[in-house]
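User: Please predict structures.

Assistant: First:
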Amino acid sequence: MRTALTIAGSDSSGGAGIQADIKAMTMNGVFAMSVVTALTAQNTTGVSGIMEATSEFLRQQLDMVFTDIFPDAVKIGMVSSSGLIRAISEALKFYSARNIVVDPVMVSTSGAKLITDDAVKTLADELLPLATIATPNIPEAEILSGMKISGRDDMERAGAKISADYGCSVLVKGGHAVNDADDVLCEGEKFTWFHGDRIDTHNTHGTGCTLSSAIAANLAKGYTLSDSVRLAKEYISGALGAMLDLGKGSGPMNHAFNLTGKFAEKHDVRKILMASVSDIWPEYNNHPFVKGLETGTLDPQKFRRYIIQDYLYLEEYSKVFALGIAKTKSADTMRLFSSVIQAISTVEMNIHKGYMGRLGVTQEELDSASRKLANLSYTSYMLRIAYEEGEPEILAAILSCALSYEDIAKEIVRRNPESVNHDLYGTWIRTYSGEEYCGLNDVLVSYTEKATENYTASQMDHLAEIFRACSEYEMGFWNMGWSDE
């Protein structure tokens, strides 16, 4: 599981500070850790007292975190004095911390000052150069840039100046009525605007803490900076829109508004893979070979040619699973792949042999048959993936064939329920739309989810590339069956 660390002050009312950070990080699918910079006595109406941690004890907290559970991202919030800021800076550099989000907290939502004047300069000089991204609101961006901000262009200019001065990306938040709920991400000279509707609520306690923590969580999961901001904006809009109403002042938002929803998800493997072939798979279902299976009008000689090549394909396909057994460290995966090989050899290949008997294919003809170019190219690609890459990549290659056959067969049944009764093609349709075959696919997807639990977005993109490549080879296979290409 990916991890994120918040370095911030405690909010005794639970709406901001480390309490908000931990809630937001958890809801965004990472394990949250905390280093406390200060205790505050506060509620929704204001702050009545601050008790700061010593620099020595702060460094001790940091050491204990980094030497045991190294965080995939770090969010820095309220740090009220220069000594604490320097202790944090030294630790982050010593441990080569990554994905650092600095929320330059200066004033609370209720108006209380949370940082000394000299610490503002220290924060800018010590922490911003280490940051992946800083997330100032309008007043904070004015202080850091030395500019007055009164509109959209000023937000861009201030963000660009802070970015140039300190070498970090900057998200200037427009929630202080300057530009409604629109924020601008400044990455050097590149500007990306994130538009949002202002939500009519006074319960905005901890919005800055929550947004920066969600960004850190998304960076920890491997999202790009732009996507991390976009997803965090969606999350905070949902939390505000839940209209929680607690306390007598500026109350907290509902961090847990979507407790079982998408923001806690790491990734949905099936969804990611399917999205990569949204333009290819519909073509399968309209392919003349598949339409012939559906209507029962497919020339048996074309099916005969296909069934021989598919039998040869299954021999190589089984080897991909065998290589998966060699690559995996999981005994459960070994047993799964072994059972799939067994199912291929005793079920699928026997169905193929049954078809060959009906279509007059002799054992001699089968033994002398060679794989056509489309078949050879496809299986060679899968075997290369199996030899060169790991278990998740092998699963991605396997799933293209497995899931596409399920999709095709189910679509045939949906369009023509009587197709399962066809004298020749009904067995094929029943096999690949049946519970046993589809259930095994679900198990393969589940194993892929587990194998990719800690995969970054870029690694998931690579899996999608493999899945798409195999899907393109699948199209070549259908073309071969139809026209002997």
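Second:
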Amino acid sequence: MYMIDFVFKEQHTVSDALMQLFRIVTILRGDGGCPWDREQTPRDTALNLIEESYEFLDAKEHGDIIEELGDVLLNAMMLLEMHQEDGCEDGIAALNGVCEKLIRRHPHVFGEVSVSDSSEVLDVWNAIKVEVEGKKDAEDDFFSRLPSSMGPLEQANKIQKKIGKVGFDWPAVEGVIEKVEEELGEVIQAMEHPDDEGEDLEMEIGDLLFAVVNLSRYVGLDPSYALHRSNEKMKRRFNRLYALSKEQSIPLDRDHIAEMDALWQEIKEHEGGTHGE
């Protein structure tokens, strides 16, 4: 392997900085570049992009986004380069296509259409998708345009948003909450009267999760990110419990659950959490 002659230069415009990043990515993917980077596939990079996007959202809460924003842009550039290799011009076509689409779908900005609020913007956007671009659902499948590779949690949210757009929705949040309570009751009932295969319980738990996703959607929150935040909170608090248990020589096992509960309450009170958190 030979040393590649490249010197980093701090840039002062977005275009120059993006081009430098793209140049580095092409070097890493090219002959004499990095074996690991050369082995990455578009699927690998797309999954990395999802992970880095969550890290960016975490960083937004802590006020330090520069590195994480850079990682998001890196993976986007890596995808672009992958589709430019071997003389392919997919990346250029993608950039041209998204620019054209943005102009086409914003006639209230680049044309003479008038809108009064974001709701009307969405109406215009969706009308153009269907009437101009022909992006319609299959005749026999209302959900044909939902990506099959989307995770179950995200897909549940998309399903509910899609049926909500045609008016099949709860008139008030109270109905959504009652549905969550109803599904929880059915889970408890299935646990009390289990079938041999456990399929009834599995289905009822699925229905409960679907109802909770719907509640999140109804109040305007993203269920995936809400769960991500809860995961991070649990990891943070339990790591603190783990450290305190070591300091106080408390074994982490069922025989010391009372001591663990006491530490947990102490941690929650220190963070200012309420009883239910």
